[in-house]
């Protein structure tokens, strides 16, 4: 049995507990997670029996890749009949179907079309169930994330000797992207949240790194234009100001997320102290990374630590633009569960992969901090990020 079939089987067991008839997977990343292919179409996993991948394009490639029966999507007029036939039993005789799907990402227009195609069906929100299943990574998933970490480190080390005073931020970003791609980065990073977009990283220097933006993170960056208002802009790197290098890398679909702070010369003492506190927060969080620790508690403990250091006003952003988390799950998407934030009661469990990113934002001066990615193990954690710790002085 393949890993994809094992995932389908787990989902089927959970659907039986809830009395669902099946799960219609519409989100590309989830389709890949459950069948190993990402062609245009929909994956239907009945509570009993074999999954079916209804594909518009490319049918040929889906047949080569998918751990499911593959059929042409065909006419929407027959979709309801085909799903009922796949479910069988009482549902085929006309009883209402209870079908789950990912309502967190499903467009309303498509939802309305599905309601028309399956009149009388009761639609359930299965998005949380999928996201909770994806929290626990398989050994192969972890292997891909480890490789992404190795690639990210190699790219950073290749670029550092070329950083110079007067270099534009976007030039540094271009050098990093070039090195990542040469080493196998897929060039695509995914987010699940609506209207959120993700590029290779947030690379910015000095005041521009502290410019707030729509991206749900502690550092924004000006970007090159209001149509893409994040990350590197045209500002020139100056001596003595923090250079925030928050980069990701994707290998075989899986992401690593890491941040390092660089500086040409030396940092201002206040920024250096804030960076030191960021490392202290990370070390204190590491000490509690073990199965059973509640995700929320790690965030609350970090808040206490930052308050004691009298840096609360700068933690994870500034003013109204502060974000309310310390870290996040990572895998096929960068905003996975669990989130280290208030209200997230998930106990850490072996197989979770979490990026932890304590940072401090100083408007007009810059952002300092660090981010590493960790695997929760049976007896603690494994640090997956391999880039050298500490501020890099150039």
Defining key terms:
alpha+beta, Creatine Amidinohydrolase, Chain A, domain 1, Creatine Amidinohydrolase, 2 domains, 5-stranded antiparallel β-sheet, Creatinase/aminopeptidase-like, Peptidase_M24B
Quick description:
With 394 residues, the protein is of the alpha+beta class.
Number of domains: 2
CATH fold title of the largest domain = Creatine Amidinohydrolase
Q: Decide which structural class fits the backbone.
A: alpha+beta
Biggest pleated-sheet summary: 6 strands, mixed
> In which range does the helix fraction lie?
25-40%
Strand arrangement, major sheet: 4-3-2-1-5-6
Termini separation: 51 Å
Low-confidence stretches: none
Q: What is the CATH architecture assignment of the largest domain?
A: Alpha-Beta Complex
**Any idea what the shape is?**
elongated
Order of helices and strands: HEHEEHEHHEHEHHHEEEHHEEEEEEEE
- The CATH homologous superfamily of the largest domain is called Creatinase/methionine aminopeptidase superfamily
Explain this structure to me?
The structure is a single chain. The chain is an alpha+beta fold and 394 residues long. The chain has two domains: 3-133, 3-Layer(aba) Sandwich (Creatine Amidinohydrolase, Chain A, domain 1); 136-393, Creatinase/methionine aminopeptidase superfamily (Creatine Amidinohydrolase, Alpha-Beta Complex), CATH 3.90.230. It has helices spanning 3-18, 28-35, 59-65, 79-87, 89-92, 108-117, 127-135, 139-159, 169-182, 269-286, 295-308, and strands spanning 22-25, 40-46, 52-57, 69-72, 98-101, 122-125, 201-205, 243-251, 254-263, 327-329, 336-340, 353-356, 359-362, 366-369, 372-377, 380-383, 392-393. Strands 4-3-2-1-5-6 form a six-stranded mixed sheet, with helices on both faces. Strands 11-10-12-15-16 form a five-stranded antiparallel sheet. α8 (139-159) crosses α9 (169-182) and α10 runs antiparallel to α11. The protein starts with a helix and ends with a strand. Residues 144-378 form the Peptidase M24 domain. InterPro entries: Creatin/AminoP/Spt16_N, Creatinase/aminopeptidase-like, Creatinase_N, Pept_M24, Pept_M24_MAP, Peptidase_M24B. It comes from Paenibacillus plantarum. Residues 7-136 form the Creatinase N-terminal domain. This is M24 family metallopeptidase.
């Amino acid at each position: 049995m393949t890993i994809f079939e094992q995932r389908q089987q787990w989902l089927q067991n959970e659907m039986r507990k809830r009395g669902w008839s099946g799960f219609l997977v519409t989100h590309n990343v989830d389709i890949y997670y459950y069948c190993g292919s990402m062609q245009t179409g929909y994956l239907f996993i009945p509570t009993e029996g074999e999954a079916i991948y209804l594909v518009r394009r490319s049918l040929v490639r889906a047949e080569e890749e998918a751990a499911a029966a593959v059929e042409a999507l065909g006419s929407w007029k027959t979709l309801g009949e085909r799903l009922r036939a796949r479910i069988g039993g009482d549902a085929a005789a006309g009883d209402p179907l209870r079908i789950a799907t990912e309502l967190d990402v499903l467009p309303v227009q498509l939802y309305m079309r599905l309601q028309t195609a399956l009149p009388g069906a009761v639609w359930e929100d299965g998005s949380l169930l999928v996201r909770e299943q994806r929290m626990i990574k398989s050994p192969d998933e972890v292997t891909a994330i480890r490789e992404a970490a190795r690639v990210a480190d190699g790219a950073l080390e290749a670029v550092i000797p070329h950083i110079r005073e007067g270099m534009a931020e976007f030039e540094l970003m271009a050098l990093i992207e070039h090195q990542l791609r040469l080493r196998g980065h897929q060039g695509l990073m995914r987010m699940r949240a609506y209207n959120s977009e993700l590029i290779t990283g947030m690379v910015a220097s000095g005041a521009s790194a502290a410019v707030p933006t729509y991206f749900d993170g502690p550092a924004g960056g000006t970007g090159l234009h209001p149509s893409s208002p994040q990350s590197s802009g045209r500002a020139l790197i100056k001596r003595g100001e923090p250079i925030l290098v928050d980069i990701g890398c994707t290998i075989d679909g899986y992401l690593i997320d890491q941040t390092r702070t660089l500086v040409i010369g030396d940092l201002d003492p206040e920024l250096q102290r804030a960076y030191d506190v960021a490392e202290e927060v990370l070390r204190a969080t590491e000490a509690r990374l073990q199965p059973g620790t509640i995700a929320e508690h790690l965030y609350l403990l970090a808040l206490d630590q930052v308050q004691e250091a009298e840096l609360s006003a700068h933690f994870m952003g500034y003013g109204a633009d502060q974000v309310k988390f310390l870290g996040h799950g990572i895998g096929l998407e960068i905003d996975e569960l669990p989130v280290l934030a208030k209200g997230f009661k998930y106990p850490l469990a072996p197989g979770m992969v979490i990026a932890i990113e304590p940072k401090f934002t100083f408007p007009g001066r810059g952002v300092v901090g660090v981010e590493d990615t960790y695997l929760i193990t049976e007896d603690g954690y494994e640090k997956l990020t391999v880039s050298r710790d500490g501020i890099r002085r150039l």
